[in-house]
Batch of 2 targets.
Target 1
Amino acid sequence: MSGKVTNGAGGSGDGGDGSEGTPELDAAFFARWMTAAADAVAREADRLTELDSAIGDSDHGGNMRRGFEAVREELGEEVPATPGAVLMTAGRKLVSTVGGASGPLYGTLLRRAGKALGSAERVSREELAGALRTGIDAVAQLGGAVAGDKTMLDALFPAVEALADSGGKDFEAARTAAEQGAEETVPLQARKGRASYLGERSIGHQDPGATSAALLVAALAEADTAVEPEGDADGTGSAQGGSGGSE
Amino acid sequence: MRMLINVPESVVPDALRGMAAAHPELTVDVDRRVVMRRDAPVDGKVALVSGGGSGHEPLHGGFVGPGMLDAACPGEIFTSPVPDQMVAAAAAVDSGEGVLFIVKNYTGDVLNFDMAAELAEDEGVRIGKVLVEDDVAVTDSTHTAGRRGTGATLFVEKIAGALAAEGAPLEQVEAVARQVAGSSRSFGVALSPCSTPAKGGPMFELPPGELELGVGIHGEPGRERRAMMTAGEIADFAVDAVLEDLQPEEPVLALVNGMGATPLLELYGFCGEVHRVLAERRIPVARTLVGNYVTSLDMAGASVTLCRADEELLRLWDAPVRTPGLRWGV
């Protein structure tokens, strides 16, 4: 079963337990992730805009909603054959529709993660974690930001750490870490993006980018607990697998 | 807040349809969101492409035409355009002589234009790039995204556009654009906040009786908030802030720019004060432009942009230009 463990980008090489590297996640899972993200962004768009109006220019919710609705539409027409292709398609769509800094940054996150997954038809959770790390590093490089700059990275870094700590398995831990990371941007002073012009006045507000990034991570956990259409993907150890209620 | 719109979602395409109706000399692609010279590509000419969030009109679409831009890419309100727009624009206006991207220094604009440059180059278009970062209200430091691009964009687009119209090669057009960007500095003030259609109300709070010194063109804060000042006091503060950074030894080009909701009567009054301060500092003013050119929706206030201008820059400034927002000599 675990014979096809390709060495994802991370190459962390920690000796996992039995289910290490089972390639259980298929393109449908990744499409569910993107759809769940679109749902979350649509649901929270007003809140994102509200947060953005405090330290930005009040358009983050609208821009992200426009982008993820376009992703939903694209994937609704045809789901690409591989996990990597799903993420690359979604990333390209975000670049083409979001605008602002968020378009290139979220687009790069998904495109680079998708590229790291290669052309495998199924990937393991570890590989997903490694690919996310690759995507997040690319975002950091593109935006020139580091942890603590009050950006989306303050949600993404802790999420991918939590994911790595569990050998890529614990999406719920990643969600919690991302949400906590986003909340912890409140006392920070922005050093990148438009909020940086506020200087000390950016302190006391939660970063909208970190908040939308946490939604993307939460959607990963939601995709994991959602019902699979044809639950044949063995779903080895994941206790949450196929737990019913799709919403 | 009452706005002369249909629905907030369609403000940008609605305005583009209106531009198309008013300016048959332009090609306005409403779906792809590109405004172009109808006669593009112009044989043997380097093309200039700019763009940015909407809400700063006439920048950039209003500066498309002979002697200035070949194409402009309007984004959503205060949101940078997407790479597809600039790639489409570059492909449409390139005559084979190359394309200069004029980019204001905001994270989103920089990232989207960079991606577009890469894609356009893949398609065989030669791309030059100039970054406009003239706003002295925020310092260029590692603690911010750097200086913002504001009023100097007009100087760059006009002067580089004039040189391109003379048939200069891409390297020269890019060099003069950089020279203008490097020789220009700005400082703005807000007397009232702006309101975006999506929000339907003010983007930030500015208590009555106060002004924001060093405001950006998206209502971003600058240096400090103070009790309301007179036009003369504001001119002293703004011009000194610019001069501190610019230290001109040549005459200057001056732009006294309205933010959108300040009447021309007030702008001319302010312009008189700007000239008074410059005279006191013994800086000769070679040319002055007054009006609403780089705006921030319905914000009240003004900005001052000064550019150290040698004879060549002045010659290019005086060259003919024919666009919806700026026209002379034709």
Note: The first strand of chain B starts at residue 26 and ends at 29.
Target 2
Amino acid sequence: MSIILDHVNHIYEAGTAMEYAALKNISLTIPDGQFIGLIGHTGSGKSTLVQHLNGLIAPTSGNVYYNGEDIHNSDYNKKELRSKVGLVFQYPEHQLFEIDVFSDVCFGPRNLGLDKKEVELRAYAALKQVGLEDEYFYQSPFDLSGGQKRRVAIAGVLAMKPEVLILDEPTAGLDPKGRDEILDQIAKLREETGMTVILVSHSMEDVAKYVDRIIVMNKGQVRFDDKPREVFRHYKELEEIGLAAPQVTYIMQTLKKNGLDVDTDITTIEEAKTAILNALAKADKPMA
Amino acid sequence: MLRDITLGQYYQTDSVIHRLDPRVKLMTTICYIISLFIVDNFVGYILAGVFLALVIKLSKVPLKFMIRGMKSIIFLLIIAVIFNLFLTPGEVIFTLWKLRITKEGLRQAVFMAIRLVFLIMGSSVMTLTTTPNNLTDGMEKLLGPLKFFKVPVHEIAMMMSIALRFIPILLEETDKIMKAQIARGADFESGNLIKKAKSLVPLLVPLFISAFRRANDLAMAMEARCYRGGEHRTKMKPLIYKKRDRLAYGVVVCYLACCVAFGKILL
């Protein structure tokens, strides 16, 4: 049970002057239940990659398998695939169209052909999952704030009960508070449901705290694919491709260089706090 | 899927045609369209075809781009051909059940098809080789005399350029929203006409909202830069005719003369 990409290439506008290879020979395995951060600079091919995962675009060459089946086989049920692999686009609030929040969330499950009761149950559950209060349910989605609209849009995909949830830059354009809220919600959601989550972002800072695996894309290729701490060790190379490790990594590196005995593989602020306090306590002892 | 429409899209390259004054290109396009309606025999259409082929060759725009633009009018083309083919009275050459194909009808249909194809291709050459900005400048200058009759020439030109500028943006937006709704299980392809029309609601509502939002933002940005219409507005790059522009006018006049001479009189 997993998604497998086998030597996937994607070329936009093949055969014209604007020909552009967005993905070059990508092979990846995404097992069930993993929390993945897909990181890359603008134009690195990350959005193109995730659109392959639910069959919205077909690879120019190579294959995509979901649970062992080639999704581009002529008899493969793409509609079912799209309910299993939920994709939340960048600025998903731009896709809202219904007269109220609740009907908009119902759109996805209704397309699956479920009966009315099941559709409404799912919509209600999804809106609760993203933490939207009842009082907003029957308001026009266009009257909500940016962060709330985004929650509604995410709920619209969640209501289809996907096994894999892909979020393309879910925090773009949100303020720091809104960003943290959305990310925390997603992390909580994953804990509760155990679904596979792929978080697309250009910021290491955003994902470092949550994910168990980071895939770094550069110019259509996979540059790194490892646990966060392993990836951040290459912070110098990351800088070369226009990315950066989280600030914590830099602080730990500098502290180490200046003689404080700390673990430089630390990725989150909480861990850093403990490590620094421990190191200081150790350093203090000989003097005392 | 929607990137195929090339009308109103600029193709970046460096060619003689690209460097021509936009006024020349506008006038040439108008003359070319007129010429298509003047000629009514095969010699004339061959002439028009050769002229178009030469211009396309000179413009260095791959032919593929023009042909891709044709896809959008194929439906119109088929209807025009069918109507002309069956509904023109004259000497019957073929009968199929109640439908008659006449000699005149066949001729008319072929001419109509050629005319439409050349028309679209001819105007695509203009939009593919001229940036929207340039095109508006040219139009504004050409329509300049109308200002005496209180026609808001500058405003019209500005609106045209904004409209042209937004075609590719809105197409891209449509593509994006379509994908987002497909990801939510929307189905734009199957079902009868009513179902299909209904399925467009999730596409059209967000598209209109986004168009209004963009229009609002643009108006704000223009106002922030003190835009206030055409009065006393000067240009950074005023349009000036050069030698090649005069030459091009000469060629167009020659072409028109040939069209009248061969496309009309001879048979």
Note: Chain A touches chain B through 26 residues (CB under 8 Å).
